[in-house]
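About this split. The held-out portion is used to measure sequence recovery: a designer receives only the structure tokens and must propose an amino acid at every position. Recovery is the fraction of positions where the proposal matches the reference. Here is one held-out target exactly as it appears in the evaluation file.
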């Protein structure tokens, strides 16, 4: 597929995939984790957005093996932190081991459990976020957006991945609960008084998909 070949070219030209990032993808594969992490070009975009925003705290919903967490971490300033939520204990263990091999153990906190159960606990710790990455079970995107708004500082960036899903997003009567979750998420974004947003369609190694980029007013 030409999209994938072009991605290879862009990665070759613009992206240094260092040993730490490569190691995570390798150990994820060895541990049989699904290859649903962000692509290198998307990871670099998360890194660049982090550099632009200089967040004190990042919230990530959906850790998998910690690949996107590491992209964020590489752009963080000293003292800044990522809280990343993962429901699957096997994946969380792999992520923990992966992150232990990096210099970012103090900056990446992996919180195990279903996000809708761990978010209220996190909220009690009184942490506010400048960047929130929603990348877990799409059915719960509307609930995650409500949590994001509760926990976001003014001017916070919200990014939500996998919002095009091969174009299925326009299927109003889809029986796929993930599609319905993302459609409800878009319904919330439409004319939301506290959010300015756009969505970008993407093609590449991970097929045809897209992401939402939003700012909390
Ligand atoms: C697309 S993957 C995340 C990929 C990761 N952000 C990356 O790019 O490296 C989605 C992850 O969300 C996790 N997940 C699914 N439902 C969840 C829930 N209710 N709470 C927390 N995590 C969940 C899955 O186990 C999976 O690891």
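Reference sequence for scoring:
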């Amino acid at each position: 597929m030409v999209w994938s070949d072009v991605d290879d070219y862009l990665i070759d030209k613009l992206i240094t995939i260092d040993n730490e990032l490569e190691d995570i993808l390798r150990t994820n594969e060895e541990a049989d984790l699904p290859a649903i992490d962000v692509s290198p070009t998307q990871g670099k975009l998360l890194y660049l957005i982090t550099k632009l925003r200089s967040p004190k705290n990042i919230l990530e919903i959906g850790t998998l093996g910690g690949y996107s967490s590491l992209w964020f971490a590489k752009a963080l300033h000293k003292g800044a932190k990522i809280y990343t939520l993962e429901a699957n204990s096997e994946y969380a263990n792999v992520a923990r081991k992966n992150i232990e091999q990096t210099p970012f153990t103090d900056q990446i906190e992996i919180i195990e459990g279903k996000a809708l159960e761990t978010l209220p606990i996190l909220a009690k710790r009184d942490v506010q976020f400048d960047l929130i990455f929603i990348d877990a079970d799409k059915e719960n995107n509307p609930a995650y957006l409500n949590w994001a708004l509760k926990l976001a500082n003014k001017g916070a960036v919200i990014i939500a991945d996998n919002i095009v899903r091969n174009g299925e997003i326009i299927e109003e009567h889809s029986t796929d609960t993930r599609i319905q979750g993302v459609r409800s998420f878009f319904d919330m974004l439409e004319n939301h008084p506290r959010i300015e947003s756009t969505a970008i369609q993407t093609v590449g190694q991970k097929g045809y998909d897209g992401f939402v980029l939003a700012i909390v007013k």
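Annotator remark: The domain at 2-216 is CATH 3.40.50.150 (Rossmann fold).
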